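new request in #modeling-help
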Amino acid sequence: MGKVLYNQQFVERSKLIDIEDRGYQFGDGIYEVIGVYDGAFFLLDEHLQRLKRSAKEIQLSLPYELTELKEKLVELVSLNVLTDGVVYLQITRGEAERWHHFPHESVTPILIAYTKIEETLDEASKNGASAVLTEDIRWLRCDIKTLNLLPNVIAKQKAVENNAVEAILHRGDVITEASASNVFMVKDGKVFTHPANNYILNGITRQKVLELCDKLQITVQEEAFTIHDLLAADELFITATKLDIVPIIQVDNQPIGSEIPGETTKKIIQAFHSSLQALRIS
Ligand code: PMP
């Protein structure tokens, strides 16, 4: 199972969490999932910057500096000899007697990070996968990566029960994102994705894809689109850490485009793989 980073120490994984950890009782905390490929982190600084932002948005002070945290995470991957997988990192508002309001300032946040072996979905990435639609019932600060994931859990369960890889969320008629990934649509050669506002998590993979589209001279419109637009799309794909980019060829049993991964999606996937390859060489 490997070592766990607990505040500033590497410890054995055991019963580390107290009943009154605020993450456990209230979901009062934030997290990140960072991809590791061939023993190297992918976009680590970007993930840490997002962590810092999430902390600020929930008025949580990070227990230590990002530069120090970065060193510890590199050490954790090396200690656990992780080649392909993720580092899961969370910070909660600490352990305190159960009252809803923030605890006294003497209560310190608790940071935990551990490694998890995870393979990329090569088959789905190559051949495409299916998704289901479900109402987005989350709160109005989806831009913060908080531990409150119950609506996402329920949505993903619906996907699993329908042999789908993801549940695409819609707020009324508008597509926001998916239960654990961002959603992109291709129409007439243009790429569309929901703007990075309070309705979605601004995925690190999403940001990388936008950068790659720019390099590939593919026009992107960060604009909300509807269920109707989505079902009439030429191509559809989702992005997330370690899932990378997965073409969606069916939604609620209806075909999307020609029901095979499209040319624009394939171009973006190829560029994404080149970035990963560059990581291996550097
Ligand atoms: N949206 C949601 C709701 C997510 O949970 C995730 C995965 N963390 C993403 C988008 C994709 O984000 P990233 O590319 O940073 O993994």
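bot summary: Residues 33, 152, 177, 180-182, 201, 203-206, 239-241 surround 4'-deoxy-4'-aminopyridoxal-5'-phosphate (CB under 6 Å).
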